[in-house]
Amino acid sequence: MKTDAHARIAYIVGRLISGKSIVSLYDYARSEHIEVKNLSDSKSLKEFDYFQWSYMAGSGKRSAKFRYSSDDGRFIDLAIKGNTFIGYIQESASHFMGTVRGDSVYIFDQKEATHFNFRICGSAVEAE
Rounded to an integer, what distance in angstroms lies between the CA atom of residue 102 and that of residue 29? Predict the structure, then answer.
């Protein structure tokens, strides 16, 4: 899985769980800031609320399932419960899990057996 995929996941779960509009992330693995606008599918990511997400009701235990679909055919399935999440990336057959705590996003990629840590840097709370 490319590093962009981890940043994409961090953006998606960070946005869904924290409710913040994210402008940039800090990637601890690369020791650099990632501007969301520089991700390959940034337009799809920013518009996912209206165009790119399908929502499936959870089992009634405060969980929700989502599917992200980018313009180039990438699919990310997510199940979120509280501040934790699990998911699957179809293009790489990779499973991942993690948590969002404050402005920190922690991801464990099972296929790569590696942890990825991001911090939400540029953000604003969205108005309801």
Answer: 19
**Counted domains in the chain:** 1
Q: Answer whether 36's CB lies under 8 Å from 11's CB.
A: yes
pTM for the whole thing? 0.79
CB of 94 within 8 A of CB of 111? yes
Q: Tokens representing 87?
A: 């998911």
For 31, the token pair is 């020791």
Strand partners, 116: 107
Percent of the chain at pLDDT > 70 equals 72
* Domain with 21 in it: 3-125
Q: Convert the pLDDT of each residue in 60-78 to its tens digit.
A: 455 677 777 766 677 888 8
